[in-house]
Batch of 2 targets.
Target 1
Amino acid sequence: MPTPASLREGALIAVAVVSLTIGVRSDTVARPAGRMARLPSVTLWAWERREDLRAVDPQRYAIAYLDQTLTIDLTVQSQPRRDPVVFSAQATRIPVVRIETTRQALLNRETQHDVVTQIMRTVREPGIAALQIDFDATRSQRPFYRSLLVELRQRMPPELPLSITALASWCSWDRWIHDLPVDEAVPMMFRMEPDRGRAAQDSADFEIREPLCEDSVGVSTTEPWPHNIEGKRIYIFADDGWPQDWSANLREKLP
């Protein structure tokens, strides 16, 4: 049976643990397991064009659709999706927020807060299964992007998965994303010419080394797919749009 002294000691330890936990930064807390695992293993990207995905089996495929584009200049401007996208009421929906910047963009705390506030309008859409951010941040923009994601994760519902797209180099030889507070980073394994130009001469050909990038892959309907995609979540970009690219050949390649 514990003595009064041991009880006091245990209480002090508990208080210390709580104090340490309160002091932990949100971007270093372990990510809850399985948030992305609840989604279908194949996701169809619906970008800025008219898309009709009503024939897609909602049990097998999720739909990630461009919801709004945020342009950071001296202020933050939001452009909602212009072209309609239709899908079944049972579809697993992943809205995507695209972030772009101008040459004179102000990347400060006020802008960061404004961007997150705009993104939270998308987060509040009823029935969404996850959120994805698409931002090809340059090296100088990385601190801003990191801070933005930390604030966003803090304001999002804890059960809602947060996904980002990633240049292939971020997942290979330029591993700056390892501690971002996201559930996954989807390596874009298509249209990689700009990334190839930035790669170090002695680097491997975009071998995935970053753990955040290991469970998913982004491909297109008109370019060769990587060979090692078994067991990954596959995001497919339709170069000519859906359902035009929804061919029998494509369906045969899917799990």
Target 2
Amino acid sequence: MINKQPDNFAVCVLPEYGLKINYPMTWQIVGNETFLNNNIVVGFGIPKENPADLSFDSLCVYSLDMPANHSISLDEFIDLIMRDLKDTCPEFNLIDSTPTTLGGVPAYQIVFTETGQKKLGVSAIKGSKAYIVSYGARPERYLKNLSTVEQMIVSFEFLP
């Protein structure tokens, strides 16, 4: 369900995932059926600067089931993500990592470059799921949408 907001943002409510996030009305909302990665709950495509632009700058929300029989801390989860990025992305370069919050729960934010993109990821664990909000853009366009992405991350909520 999508509701309009007065400041050119709309609200994307995903009751089946217990999530809500605001996004710019000019961005294209893409449902999870579009992605090959089944862990993506929803994606938001940033408008292209011109029709010949082949890049796909976006913000995606991921939801991952945590192992039922194993409790994992946020620090352990971030360590796993970092190891996976280093193992699977030969061009991975960590720029920054900072504790933060996502939807009112403790989270961790990392900023890095890999394979021609600059990325920001905010990860949190709530209940039996891990959530990641991930923004990726070409390095020369990363800052252009960063304040909008930050507004989206701040608006992220876990529904009761």
